[in-house]
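Annotated sample (chain length 339).
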Amino acid sequence: MNAPRKQPAILIIYTGGTIGMYQNAQTGALCNFDFDRLVSYVPELQRFGYQLDSYTFPHPIDSSDMSPDNWVELVRIISDHYEQYDGFVVLHGTDTMAYTASALSFMLEGLSKPVVLTGSQLPVGALRTDGKENLLTAIEIAAARDKNGQAMVPEVCVFFESRLMRGNRTTKINAEGFDAFRSFNYHSLAHAGIHLRFERQYIRRVDANTPLTPHFRLDRNICVLTLFPGIQREIFDAILGVKNLKAVVLKTYGAGNAPQREWLREVLSHLRQRGVVVVNVTQCSKGTVEMARYESGLQLLQNGVVNGYDSTIECVVTKLMFLLGEGFEGEELRLKFEN
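Output written by the structure step:
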């Protein structure tokens, strides 16, 4: 293990999104600004005393256009620069930030340094932006060390509006307010108020000597299906006809319940025979799937549906992509997902 640097070195990776934009004075349109000029927008950065470097995606993207290829690009950037920096701050649009954070949490095996994703609802150059505070605090978290010189938060996380949250436990809940993200089923990792207070008991404990093992393979042959009252068999039959389908995320009611229909049980049986794994997640923001609790959930369990417990939809989607990319399918995927 390398000795900790006296001066923390942080790499800021700009993927795109509102936080890295400025408003054109003539047109009023939002444009990506040259990230080398960041200090002119946030002069407080000079007070840190850190080594701050930046990397900008060659073609910054709106987060609605974020894809698994971009996640692979991020993993390559982090792994290529892993030994040079003590932490990483990823600036990202808010719409798919939770998906990216979840994907990175699986793809960066052996991570022992902070990877903090953040963004904003207003551009960092706007008069009352939330971007400046989010950026400054994310950098401070990425650089934070304990008394032994180890990273305070050696995992992928999301910082937004005073909360630091585990990346694969986070979901976007607000399109307008500054409190855009929540982690409903897992405790926050830190709170930024007058003091930056870390919740050590909830933060991953890692061996700093473990080498980083980046993963670059993702398989997109999955789909997400949300139940609603009156849903017809034809919808499920259409899914059965999807070529190369390997997994389905089924968003159910309450504690993991679904309509008690014979045709639904038949479809689930056919999917399992084809080797397609079905994972049950609840449509509720908070709580967990308990398929044995009611008959309407037990029928799913009896037909081979996998329990997604209290996972977010972002976590389940990216975990399936990751495991499929690693070559797990059918019953092997089912067992691997549950572990």
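Annotation: The mean pLDDT is 90.
Annotation: The chain has two domains: 9-214, 222-338.
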